């Protein structure tokens, strides 16, 4: 029985390592893309960077949940719970930040707010957005219709 537990523990630790590496790679790639976007003065990079960080954090939370399978004591479990709570809170804040930024961009698109409003986000960064045309604004992308009824 001890041998099975030993191999199970090795397997779980290998899975945790793979998930952790995936999360770290996603965060690093997002940071590099964010830096390149910053250098190119791309306004939409804030949202893309936040989404990348959020995805990487979700991988890290997943690895911590998997780690809970092999913890051996209450102190380890408490530490693990605190780490999961902090990462989940950060992910929640990033979700909220992205939602607020997208709302602001929609307000700018509809003409309710000036782009030079100077509004600052929760994280203290000046909000900016890059508005892309909606698919319905491009006549070549419209769905085919017969007598005003969508065919799709």
Going by helix content, strand content and strand pairing, the class is mainly alpha
- Count of distinct strands: 2
Compute the separation of the termini in Å.
58 Å
Ranges where pLDDT stays below 50 over 5 or more residues in a row are 113-127, 131-152
Radius of gyration: 22 Å
Q: So what's the overall shape?
A: elongated
Describe the structure.
The chain has three helices and two strands, in the order αααββ. Strands 1-2 form a two-stranded antiparallel sheet. 64% of the residues lie in helices and 3% in strands. The protein is elongated, with a radius of gyration of 22 Å. It has 152 residues and is mainly alpha-helical.
Q: How would you summarize this macromolecular structure in one to three sentences?
A:
The protein is an all-alpha fold. It has helices at residues 2-39, 45-67, 74-110; strands at residues 145-146, 149-150.
Name a few traits of the molecule:
single chain; about 150 residues; mainly alpha; two-stranded antiparallel sheet; 3 helices; 2 strands; about 5% strand; disordered C terminus
List the topology elements:
Layout: H1 2-39, H2 45-67, H3 74-110, E1 145-146, E2 149-150
Antiparallel strand pairs: 1-2
Helix pairs in contact: 1-2, 2-3
